[in-house]
Design goal:
Phosphorylase Kinase, domain 1, seven-stranded antiparallel sheet, 9 helices
């Protein structure tokens, strides 16, 4: 499909769009499965590259010291052997540069980026949820036997929010419930999984964040970790998180 927005998807994935154009593109993605699918692919590719780069390791201090000492020892060779030593010095210097540039420190996983990918993936799918219902008494029981924990859902009758359904997800190799809520023309994904000290460290101290122009909010509750993500404003996420906290 030849779409006028197709050429802006790279800038969208790189977070380079200004707010007015960003809002227009996000509205388009909600109505164009072709562009939404391609945008998801670009986001996943960007994240895959990031993860692959994080698999590198750091050369030890002893390795660097020995390499530098080896180079220093060749800086004053005998005149007759200068060409050979010069070549060796160049080769060793190139190895040092490669070690410092390519062997970067191992980075921690970006859980929030993973959550954004899952949210975009759901919206780009023709079946964004596995259990389609606005009834919390239908959605909650659907997860029984699929998750090693349980949770409560709020009553939304007197709020702006509506429950659209839910699906299974996996975050950092842990099973999670992904609940989809609607508010006006926006969708909010709320992920619920078992909390851990490692997960808390990966998510950082702040409860609110922003990734690729998506707002996120996260909080712990009774041994569970909640993560809400949407292109809606942060006030909507705060309001929904308050309802979820009250339901527990």
């Amino acid at each position: 499909m030849n779409c006028e927005w197709r050429e802006r998807l790279d800038a969208y994935a790189d977070g380079e769009l200004q707010q007015p154009e960003l809002e227009q593109l996000q509205a388009h993605l909600r109505t164009c499965p072709s562009c939404a699918s391609e945008a998801l692919g670009k986001l996943q590719l960007k994240r895959a590259v990031h993860v692959a780069a994080s698999e590198a390791f750091v050369p030890s201090a002893e390795f660097r010291s020995n390499l530098l000492d080896s180079i220093d020892a060749r800086r004053a060779p005998r005149r007759g052997l200068w060409p050979a030593f010069a070549i060796a010095t160049v080769v060793l210097a190139a190895l040092l540069v490669a070690a410092l540039v390519l062997l970067q420190p191992r980075t921690t996983p970006d859980v929030l980026a993973e959550v954004v990918d899952l949210h975009v993936s759901a919206l780009a799918s023709t079946t964004p949820v596995d259990v389609v219902s606005s009834d919390r008494h239908t959605v909650k029981p659907w997860f029984q036997g699929k998750l090693p924990f349980t949770f409560n859902l709020p009553e939304l009758q007197n709020s702006e929010f509506r429950l659209l359904g839910g699906r299974m997800a996996y975050i950092e190799h842990s099973p999670a419930a992904q609940l989809l809520f609607g508010v006006r023309k926006h969708e909010i994904s709320v992920f619920i999984l078992q909390d851990s000290e490692r997960l808390g460290k990966l998510l950082g101290k702040g409860k609110a964040a922003r990734r690729l122009d998506f707002n996120l909010e996260t909080w712990p509750e009774d041994g569970l970790r909640y993560i809400a993500v949407s292109d809606s404003n942060s006030a909507d996420l705060e309001a929904l998180s308050s309802l979820l906290r009250a339901a527990q």
